[in-house]
Design goal:
This protein is of the alpha+beta class. Strand 11 and strand 12 form a beta hairpin.
Length: about 220
C-alpha cells in the first residue's frame, strides 16, 4: 500500500511539458492529491518545493517523463519518523535510545532514511544498552541513519551509502527474501521496507547495525 501511494503520487493524467509549467501551478494526481510546481528566476522547475526536475521532457510512447532528484512523499505519509517509531510496539527499546540521545529532530527535520531494529533485534544483539556511553549510543544511532529519502530499490541499485556517522558506510544487496545490509561485521535483513513518513523513510531491520571499529560491546 505504501508503494502504491508513492507511485501514484508521481503520476499526472496529462501530457505536461516544462514549457507549459507556470510558477505556482497545481496538478492533481490519480488519487486526487496535488503536486505544486514552482519556477525560479533561472527557469528551474521544482515539485513540492524540494524536488528539482533535473532532466525534463523525456518523450515516451504514452507521455512525458521528468527526472527529479528527490522522492515525492504523498500526503498519506502524514506521520513523522519520530511519531512512527514512538507508536510502534516493536520499537519501544529503539525509541527509548533515540529519545535519550535527543534524536527528536526526526520529527521536525529531514528527510532521513532510518533503519529501525526491533525490540527482538536489540535483545538478541548482546548489547546492554544501559552500559553504553552516550557517545557510543550516538555513534550507533547515526550508523542507522542516512540523509535523504532512499527507497529499497534505490539502495540496492546504489550498492552502498554513507551514514550520518562520519566514515560509516553500509553496503546493500538482495536475495530472494529481500534487501540485505552488510555493516562490515554482520548481515542484516530488511523485514519491512519503504515505510513513508513526512520526514523520511523507515526500513525495519532484524538486527542492530554495529559500526565497524567502534568497541560498543565486549565479545
Amino acid at each position: 500500500e505504501h508503494m502504491k501511494d508513492l507511485a501514484l503520487y508521481h503520476v499526472m493524467r496529462l501530457r505536461l511539458a516544462t514549457e507549459d509549467i507556470n510558477d505556482g501551478m497545481e496538478i492533481s494526481t490519480p488519487q486526487r492529491n496535488f503536486l505544486l510546481f514552482t519556477v525560479d528566476n533561472e527557469e528551474t522547475v521544482f515539485v513540492n518545493d524540494n524536488a528539482e526536475i533535473t532532466e525534463p521532457d523525456i518523450d515516451v510512447r504514452n507521455g512525458i517523463v521528468h527526472r527529479i532528484n528527490d522522492v515525492l512523499l504523498p500526503p498519506s505519509a502524514s506521520t513523522t519518523t519520530w511519531e512512527y517509531i514512538s507508536q510502534s510496539q516493536d520499537h519501544s527499546t529503539f525509541f527509548q535510545m533515540l529519545s535519550d540521545a535527543n534524536f527528536d529532530f526526526l520529527g521536525t527535520t529531514g528527510p532521513f532514511t532510518l533503519f529501525a531494529p526491533t525490540n527482538e533485534a536489540i535483545e538478541n544483539s548482546d548489547i546492554d544498552v544501559g552500559t553504553l556511553s552516550s557517545e557510543a549510543i550516538d555513534h550507533l544511532l547515526n550508523f542507522h541513519l542516512i540523509s535523504g529519502n532512499h527507497l529499497s530499490y534505490e539502495l540496492f541499485d546504489a550498492g552502498e551509502a554513507e551514514t550520518e556517522l562520519e566514515g560509516g558506510r553500509l553496503k546493500f544487496g538482495a536475495q530472494r527474501f529481500g534487501l540485505f545490509i552488510n555493516n562490515g561485521i554482520s548481515i542484516s535483513r530488511v523485514t519491512a521496507s519503504n515505510i513513508l513518513t513526512s520526514t523520511g523513510i523507515v526500513h525495519v531491520v532484524d538486527s542492530v547495525l554495529l559500526p565497524p571499529g567502534i568497541p560498543l560491546i565486549e565479545r
